[in-house]
Amino acid sequence: MVVDKASGMTSHDVVAKTRKSLGTREIGHAGTLDPMATGVLVLAIGEATKLVPYLTASDKEYEATIALGTTTDTLDADGKETSRADVPSGWTSSLDTALEEERKRTMQLPPIYSAIHAKGARSHERARRGEAVELDERPVRVIALEVLATREAGRGLGATVANDALDVRMTVSKGYYVRALARDLATRLGTVGHLTALRRIRSGTFTLADVGTTIPLVTAATRVLPKTTLTETGVAHARAGRRVPLDDLGTNDDGEHAWLAPDGTLVAIGRIEDGSGKVTRGFRY
Q1: Which of 4, 13, 34, 78 is catalytic?
Q2: Nearest Cα to 167, choosing from 66, 21, 282, 94?
């Protein structure tokens, strides 16, 4: 199920509300959105929870607004202001260089207000207790990053613009924090910054056009994984958790595939290993 998360709700709030509505606890989600953020949140229900690792691994696309000159402890508008700094005049002329540096990024330091586990607790829990939190950089990838608009304080057309700000659109890998982009991009521009708006417009192959729809399990699986069709004999082996001979597998490709029965039913997720097919995750039928 694809929903458009409202601002002010946590991703867990959405899951809890859906659990109550559908009468099942077998619900997970494919990638946390901060309370301030809105947009695409993919919920996995029942057997579809087995797809969560593949759904969360997909890249995500966002649109965000970054305000320059002030920053907060959480690096977004929900946090408490922690510092101010002048914004250099003509900062827009340095923007291309700053963006290019971000596009080259391979490691990122996450915000301390995050769900990352640190010394037995969530990082944000320790930070709110006033504990010193140190996190390691994590591997990330910036697939695309572009500026949609810029606004310079006091230089608006027909009206005074209160703050320097920019709107960006980006496609990034799993594990990338857009709040950290606000921090790091502002630093490159010689100031400080934080997010004032964040909207996820795509999660893997799921977009805002999918909002409000319930997607069949087999459709979701084949949107995140390549598919192959087993023979009836191969289906029997897979259902029993046995190795599937290559002749019954329908593919010689490496990597995990969604294994379908001849009638199109999702049987399992599996991969070729040691000369035959091995079930990674089986599905009830």
Answers
A1: 34
A2: 66
Active site residue 73: no
60-202 and 225-282, same CATH topology: no
pTM of the model: 0.91
CB-count exposure of residue 12 (10 Å: 0-12, 13-18, 19+): exposed
Burial class (CB in 10 A: 0-12, 13-18, 19+), 138: middle
Cβ atoms of 204 and 30 closer than 8 Å = yes
* Alpha-carbon separation of residue 169 from 177, 197, 238 (angstroms): 13, 12, 43
Q: Tell me how far apart the alpha carbons of residues 276 and 81 are, in angstroms, rounded to a whole number.
A: 58
β pairing state of 227-229 and 257-260: parallel
Q: Which helix (H) or strand (E) holds 224?
A: helix 217-224
pLDDT 10s digits, 111-138:
987 878 877 788 877 878 887 888 889 9
Candidates 3.40.718.10, 2.60.40.1970, 3.40.50.300, 2.30.130.10; CATH matching 225-282: 2.30.130.10
Q: Indicate the fold that domain 2-57+204-219 takes in CATH.
A: Alpha-Beta Plaits (3.30.70)
Domain boundaries, given as residue ranges, for the chain:
2-57+204-219, 60-202, 225-282
pLDDT band, residue 161 (cuts 50/70/90):
low
CB 111 within 8 A of CB 205: no
Phi/psi of residue 273, each to 5°?
A: -150, 125
Domain formed by 60-202, architecture: 2-Layer Sandwich (3.30)
